[in-house]
Amino acid sequence: xxxxxxxxxxxxxxxxxxxxxxxxxxxxxxxxxxxxxxxxxxxxxxxxxxxxxxxxxxxxxxxxxxxxxxxxxxxxxxx
Length: 79
Hints:
This protein has 1 helix and 4 strands, in the order H-E-E-E-E. By secondary structure, the protein is an alpha+beta fold.
């Protein structure tokens, strides 16, 4: 088995973090470009593509979410 080369000097922490930070920013930019926002044809607000509108509840011309219905949140546990 061949011997591997060894580094002449120790790398500083800043160099390592800069290397991983550039990878992180590249990944964030790649994800940012994949999210598509479109205008809702019913109300005109910006929504995610292929999702029901969070403002009016319409998806592809049909009402799929009831926005008037109140969601009851449980804050205390009844014993």
